[in-house]
Amino acid sequence: MIKNLRLLLIGGLLTNCAFAQKLTLPVETAHNALVLQVSNNNDLTQVYFGEKLNNPSEYKAISPGDNNDYSGVYRSAYTSSGSRNLLEPAISIQHADGNQSLDLRYVSYKQEKLSTDISLTSVKLKDPVYSIEVTLFYKAYIKDDVIEQWSVINQREKGDIILQKYASANLNLSAKSYWLRQYHGEWAKEMRPEETQITHGIKTLDSKLGTRANLFMPSVFMVSLDRSSTEDDGKVLMGALEWSGNFRTDLELDPQDHLRIISGINNYASAYRLKPGIDFVTPAFVYTYSTHGKGDASRHLHSWARDYKIMDGKRDRLTLLNNWESTYFDFNEQKLFNILKDTKELGVDLFLLDDGWFGNKYPRNDDRAGLGDWQENHNKLPNGIASIAREADKDGVKFGIWIEPEMVNPKSILYNKHPDWVIKQPKRDEYYFRNQLVLDLSNPAVQDFVFGVVDSLFIKDPKLAYIKWDCNSVIFNAYSAHLKHDQSQLYVDYVRGLYKVLQRVRQKYPNIPMMLCSGGGGRVDYAALQYFTEFWPSDNTDPLERIFIQWEYSYFYPAITSSNHVTDWGRQPLKYRVDVAMMGKLGFDIVTSKLNPHDLRFCKDAVNTYNAIKSIIWHGDQYRLSDPQTDNVASVMYVDTLKKSAVMFNYLVNNRFDSGSKGPILLKGLDATRKYTIKEINLYPGAKSNVNAETVYTGDFLMKIGINPNVDARRSSVIIHIEQAQ
Ligand code: DGJ
To answer: For residue 365, how far is its CA from the centre of ligand 1 (angstroms)?
Structure first.
């Protein structure tokens, strides 16, 4: 009892002196505010994150500290280590003299408006003892309630310092309880969600895979406050690191029940040497926050991504026919000419030639040889890809091609010529992932080579219209012959090298659409999507599986980025497969010449139907109506920004007896005051719809009473087009 009283007194004392505030700095978006405060002691704390106040002058009244915060920095805006801090740090360093302490104090701030919609706040911190400066950046996208946060570390000591941890952001949340929705996966099992209440201590989400870092776990996550949020209700933060390599996000529930989220590059095996005068710029951690549930938060993220982040987010995409699953490695010029005819017949925009077109001394006839040798295989393509491109031109379709330029098979001329370009331990046996190794992109010579792979394709076919950029191997035996004594920089410098290549590609070829593929969804993130127009969510194209995978991805990435191909995976009818692939960027990877006439007719009609509605899917707002995790029917809707036109996709996801849509499903996102008609579209030839297309409904009715798409075992997928009545 006496001990507790003493602690309270100490806490009280700390509250009164150490936390007395000098400056309050709000970072506001349309609905939210993140509030920083500087104490008399010059500690920078983040005292609030949540709905913004009507009167900004009241932010300074937010109570700055907690009793019993012995350190005074529990809610630090960027927690240092080795001095007063008692919790997980955001930054940890070793000074030039070997000392490991850091204590960052406020120096100055700057707040500027970059446009009517974007503000940038930067706060400079400095250690009073050592010449280390850290500047924290908060880029606020006002209308979308999105903030990107990163830090820049600079030092002017007498020698190099070692960065042992260097997070992008250190966010503090306050609530009664915290609910984490995280994702795990494997090949063909991407984006499996798990939701749990966060307990005290540290929960870490991370990756150590190097290249396709997201294979086991992506950096995207959600935290609901007070209770698990639903689609349309509850407080939820969605976050992700904009980095295409190892990441680490620590979620620490501290002794005062605040949640500290510290996210950045994974410092695992990655101590980084920083020379005097050089800036170390961390990647951005991006997040959005909504008090209206997961749906609203995801729409904000989508809108931000299309407006500001993804390559050509506001432009169109190409539909395509891919030959991977119809030929694998077994094709020749004539086979490809035939597929070009099929592409034309199907009515899609482009033919995409997949893996297997290259390698001569080591022909790429399976996945054991040829990677790295990017010359056309003379047996399969005696006249080169130029001849395929010419034929495509004649057929009036565009031509695109697959590459995996970061990788090498040991059976390749490249490997024989440049063993020092390959990531592998010099004294250990090689260890393979899909019989291949990763090239060392920390090496500028390798960066030149990888850029050259892309560049040479345009020399062969100046009209090349699309690139599928694959990346199948993780990094085993991390060692760079180029980095010599700085081995622990490999994971970071690899990703930086990749970005240098992608920047060069984009400088020279700004308009070429590129798909980010990784033998499935092992790589997507918002840094990579600055260079790529779309990504491949999973090799698993079984449509039932895809409904779940696409549903979870859709919380973080808009439909325009999701490459969905119709394949022969799964047991569902062709219509179901096509309908699921339409919820994103439609492609086909089937042998269309083997389709029966009805199926072929259906696919051709489906391409036309898709062309009529694709801009609603790509550029509209997405609403999730019925959840496949909990309901027998999955239902998703896209509404154009003017609320004139919408599409509702419905699928049976439970095959038990008599499963189906037993009643109306409530629509969302329409204008309650306007009138709409509904019509079932994408019907299989000869099928009749039992959805009443005669009635005119108000948006109010559709959103309060709803409509039944009549999904059942015979009508296992149903698409409904909603249009404003004249
Ligand atoms: C993995 C991709 O996910 C597939 O679509 C295909 O391109 C193969 N690689 C080719 O090797």
So the answer is: 14
